[in-house]
Amino acid sequence: MASELRVTTIANNAGTESVDTTYVINGSAKTYSLWNMGSLSGTGGTTGIDTSLNVSSMDDDGAGDFGINFTNSFSSVNYTATSATSSGSRRVLTRNGTVTASAMDGLTRNDSNSNSDAAACSVTMHGDLA
Q1: Distance from first CA to last CA of the chain, Å, rounded?
Q2: Helix H segments across the chain?
């Protein structure tokens, strides 16, 4: 049986700091992933994913071309995605290609603006879950 806790404010033990729960609910990341493009394998796998939240699998669709599949879908396609890579001048382009409530495509590009596999890629998404 599922239970539900309904509160309007969360506070520390001393009661000196508190936050309205809408900030916690609306401001928390709903999914994140850290992965190595060179280690992703095929479609629908978890190989190459170093850590994640709400990610069921990732797809390797070619050099620098990836897809992220969510365990729990967003309520619509209107979610944000912030990304980064620690591989020199490479960058991650999110929401590039097909974007649905349950999956998102993206690219990693080098400084020549060509698709290129990169290590230590990350993306964090915010939005309402279904």
Answers
A1: 20
A2: 21-27
User: pTM surpassing 0.85?
Assistant: no
Look up tokens 């990341």; give the residue: 29
Contact status, residue 58 vs residue 40, Cβ threshold 8 Å: yes
Whether residue 51 is contained in a domain is answered as yes
Given a contact cutoff of 8 angstroms between Cβ atoms, the answer to whether 84 and 118 are in contact is no
For residue 107, is it within any domain?
A: yes
Q: Tokens standing for 7?
A: 């509160």
Pairing outcome for strands 65-70 and 55-60: antiparallel
Structural tokens at position 103: 């999956």
Task: Convert the pLDDT of each residue in 101-111 to its tens digit.
Answer: 999 999 988 88
Residue 7 inside a domain? The answer is no
Count of domains in the chain?
Answer: 1
